[in-house]
Amino acid sequence: MGRIGKIARRTFLVGSAAVVGGVAFGYYAYKRPVSNPLLNDLAEGEAALTPYVKIDSTGITLITPRADSGQGAYHVQAALIAEELDVELDQVSVDPGMPDPAYYNTALSAEAAPFRSTDDGFAADTTRGIMDAMMKFMGMQITGGSTTVPDSFEKLRLAGAVARETLKAAAAQQTGANVADLKTEKGAVILPGGGSLAYTELAATAASMDPVNDVTLRDPSTWRLVGKEMERVDILAKSTGTQAYGIDFEMDGMVHASVRTSPRRGMMNGFDAEAAREMRGVIDVVQVTDGVAVVADNTWRAIQAVNAIDVDWGPAPYPAEQAEHWQALSDSFTSDHQDSRFRDDGDVDAALEGAEVVEAEYRAPYLAHAPLEPISAVVQVADDRADVWTGTQIPRFVQTNVAKLTGLDTDQVFVHVLMMGGSFGHRLEDRVVREATEIAMQMKGTPVKLTYSREEDTVQNDTRQIAMARGRGVVKDGKVEAYDLGIAMPSVVASQMGRQGLPVPGPDLQIVAGAWEQPMQIPNYRVTGYRAPELAPVSSWRSVGASTNGFFHDVFLDELIHAAGADPMEERMRLCWHDPSRKTLEAVAEMSNWGSDLGPNKGRGVAFCMSFGVPTAEVVEVTNMDGAIKIDKVWVAAEVGRVIDPINFENMVQGGIVWALGHAMNSEITIADGMAEQRNYYDFEGMRLSQTPEIFVRGLENGDTVRGMGEPMVPPAAAALSNAIFAATGQRVREMPMNKHIDFV
Amino acid sequence: MKLTVNGTEHEVDVEDDMPLLWVLRDELNIEGVKYGCGVAQCGACTVHIDGEAVRSCQTAAADVWGDVTTIEGLGTPDAMHAVQKAWVEHQVAQCGYCQSGQMMQAASLLALNPAPTDADIDDAMNGNLCRCGTYSRIRAAVKTAATKLQEA
To answer: ipTM strictly over 0.90?
Structure first.
């Protein structure tokens, strides 16, 4: 397991603790080598045990601290624990637990350092280690960056193994049997004579013992669950309408609120709520930061009333019209805006000098996340505690921010993470919690549920970054000889972390993510990131920087390959130096039968992007139906090291393709009069069922590092579509949404 | 006014124009029906009125013309409708938020058209948005449910 294994062993110790009626198993936080101050950052009290497995007389609970926004994170985490614990998934309950610094996300920090995922050299390893310590220092229990699987893969199996061996030791102590003669199965220790003791019967004994930490993880060949098709732990609830989401959370005495803050994302000058106050069910009208909320006796009345308030909004703190945003990007391709040039191979300037240069410019718009469940939060504030119930990917930030607002200590703030009806990065922001807290502080003791209307959710969305790229290249002797790509965008990380009050020093890796680190060997190869000024608020949208850059990087490569007269698949394979990456291209070529005769009016495009350490190759096939494009088929091959659950994997990848292609076809957020012009799904649609192509998925397991697949299918998809449209029509689409330039069926 | 939901009669005191969606969710605590857009663009709020699939966010309480069935009335975890069984078999859901509406739409389709073609499925299901993109599995599950219902 290479690096992950090393970090896990260096970092964690599995401990146990007595809890009411039983035992909890989990990780002690960092071992603290005194020689390294960066690692010496936890206060004494924080080195407490944080459980992953709790067993008492009533049952077994697996704690899954990475939030589930729909892609099966709870299921995958539970399966990893259950594999070693020897329990069946239908025997356990799953609980996301409370925020705790010990649940920090190691894998996220590993990808935050500017080293290619393909780079396992000493410098890369060392820097990743420092980032890891910083991440823990910040207590970032974040779900994001496709890190749930990489972060959990070894940690959770270790927790399960230690719990299992300790329960066996407890059974030995209770029965006098020899531990070596004990087996475990389906949540019980099997005794030599054939009888068994359920884990629940052993919990109290196990709590009084030192945990058995000397465990060896099982060989993958013996796995019962991991890598096999499983039934997702939440599938029954989600197929019967019985799954409760954040928006469904109810409490006695709860009131319902809805809010409007400035659609220009600035100040509120004033408001007149006289009409709203008279409306049925309205309990109160209260001010929040830059906006106003109505508290009512049900959700609909709150939304109706808040929409009846006449508000005077101040100006936007960014340019009021969309054209000015594009201009700001266009003006940013200058040396004083240069943010990074991590890739600079050969001599690009010399190669371009005097040559016949292929030039192109690309654009990608602001996009909303628009998960189907509008954001909501329930907050109850008392004198000595505050409780938050919400679907969030950042529970520790939520806890800190509620503490700041209320003046309580962080350990007086309890964040209860609820199931999310989608996120795609939306719930990496916590404004809904802050606003609900502001309302709840004005009615202490009363639980307040704040629900955004779809329109408010859309207009307040911290969008995907707007981005532009300019490519210049040269081809020679049928090959790509020089490739120079400049990318300009505002810094997502600075905007997002800025809202959390955190400065982010240094270059923003996301400005060039999905472009600079591609495993391509081009003799003269340069990728430059330009930081545009801060414009509208931007945030992490499924695959972040790579969501735009995967499109830019690969479409420009495709243009050069066509200019060279080479085959798009063969030339990408030739340029690719990284064996696991090239295998993804070989896989999609084989899956799609690349090169076969397609018949008239059809075209295929291939694209490749490595993002989040996952090399992903895709082929899109389209038909030109009298000038309108129909997307027929998509093939995806991705290198993830290990597929945890093939069914969940396929579903997630197919969904990510629908996500990427839908937005690439028809979606954008545009600014006019300082406001997002779009308000609902009628003007921000995405893909619908009738447009959905057949999507064929293959997860490859050639690499030695386990990677997450929540995002990497997104970056190549729009590129493969643009490349396919070119193949079918001869028209090169360089801007998203593509329906500005070509019709879709 | 009186509303019959999943076979139970309820007396509710609400405005005539309060959408059925919110009467179900906030007055009757029937929460399998979901709010997604409020303007009949996403289908998450789909319920049946006298067996017909309708968008409850655009159905005023006073206009409800018959018995209402929600996902909870279609089937339960212990006694699932064929559509729900197919949704489990194909493991359709990701976040699952749209799936109550998807299943209500599919059940209505299959009640009217027991053997839908691919085009029929596309037409009937096109108003139901899934942001996670589970459409491939929805198509497959509708076909499985159709087969199972015809065998029954």
So the answer is: yes
